[in-house]
Write a structure and sequence with these properties.
alpha/beta, 630 residues, 5-stranded parallel sheet, Rossmann fold, 3 domains, single chain
Length: 630
Amino acid sequence: MSARILDGINGPGDVRALAADGLPRLAAEIRAELLHIVSHQGGHLASNLGITELTVALVRAFDLTQDAIVWDTGHSGYAFKLLTGRRELMRRLREDGGCCGFLHRDESPYDVFGAGHAGTAISAALGIAAARDRTGEAGRVVAVVGDGALGCGSSLEGLNSVIETTKNFILVVNDNRMSIAPNVGGLSRYLSRLIPDARYNRFRSAVSGTISRIPRIGPRLRGLIRRIEEAAKSVVVPGAVFEELGLRYIGPLDGHDVIGLCETFAAVRRMGEPVVVHVLTEKGRGYEAAERAPEAFHGVGRFEIDSGLAAEPPAPPATPASFSAALGDSLYALARADQRVVAITAGMCHATGLALCRAHLPRQFFDVGIAEEHAVIFAAGMAARGLRPVVAIYASFMHRAVDYVFHDVCLQRLPVVLCLDRAGIVPDGPTHHGIHDLSFWGTIPHLCVLQPADGAELDGMLRLCLERHDPVVIRYPRAAAADLLRGGSRSPLEWGRAEVLREGADVVLWGVGREAATALQVAARLQEDGIAAGVVNPRFAIPLDRELLLQQARAGRPLVIIEDHVAPGGFGSLAREALAGVEPLRMLCRGWPREILPWGTETAIRHTYRMDVESLRADIRAFVRGTPTP
């Protein structure tokens, strides 16, 4: 058996030195390697399988010692990592101390711009191009953007600025769903082959110059030919909108013809004008399970390659669903009962649990694409006309729409319910940790923030919020929404009131959201140390239960806040503000520090930052006894 070509690829120079007939084999080996890695480590699969040949062609055609490739979002950068000296590091993808799941400037000099959210590549690449033009440096700048990310407001803003910013810019549109435009047939393919050829461009310029020199009628004739050319393009070429924005359009091209792509990019690199290269790819290419279900294989855990099924043993029937699934079930039931209730998401239907609504209530479901700002304003418009919109978006993605929550929802006091998934730490790392947003919401008028501790509480909160006429945020983590007390008696859900889960005279642990489960575990361990710890489930961050908090503080009981959020600006800060003037006040706030948290397993991150049960037990024990923290 011959050695793998991939094993000899230690950097971009090795790709450029490879014979052209070896490129298809290299692409096949990369695809097999990605399957092996992601099946063991989890990660983004379908998008990376689809972009393999395109990545090989880009690395081969451009000189990365001077050219810059900017990837949008970065979750499609796995093949790029393999080709830029990180083959071994990729074996520890998303592990503690291993390879980042996105492009990261600290990881490699070839990652010229890091990102984990969509819509940044065009503007960032334009900034890099502008800096190059200003300093007189050489090199090309390439932005690689998926068809979904192209619809982001920031992408469109950047696209509108290209012609005013630089004359040397390349945009590659990776279209894996044909959502920009379909292939319109042979004439389009003919023009696609003709336009990037340098001889065509030289011929076009020469003819234009010759016609201009014809006395009297030359300029008018050239203008007439240009108008005829542009009118024809608007009929037969899908990229007319790009041409109107001042970018030469090339495509659509076969994104899996690696040799053809290399030839096209080599020609494009020589062109001295802004260019759009439209490439058609198939998400999940080469792996049947991902081809059949590309959305399900967008982001996956460990799985068996042969079957496509999760590698973990089958879950018993009693295993609780995630908070995402719990939201989806609750919202589906509520929407079926009330046609005013509508579900909105921003390109994340499956991940946010809204598949039931999409499948069975299509008139009450809206996926606006990767456009969080639009989702919020869209919901506000619906609310203004009497509908009850529920918007499900990742907490970290909602950062982009904070101004719209303020300006379009809260200033008008419109009843929009914002359900923020992944509100807490996640394996993907700093771009996806949902641990900063409570500090934003705490300053916005008319906005309430709720945090359920389990799936039943999430259902109750959603129902309660839909009965009110105020804007609300419901935050919940990427976790199982297991019954908090395993069938035990719970206090009724009452607006603005916390729930006492356990009495204890020595210290009271306020476990925010799902951290109530953590607090219960810590309290059980403290009991072994002779410390009677009470546990409170706050339920509401805004408005918090100040009455209960004051009662406990004035009784001289030490208070501990445990939250899956940055401690400065989090629930602990709200509690301290509520207790201002209470003396003496003994309070310990345990959350995440104000720093960039890494990627990796939740277990490892919690251990590193002393947020695991045993570390919390030791620190709270020292706090109660007045001894130094371990």
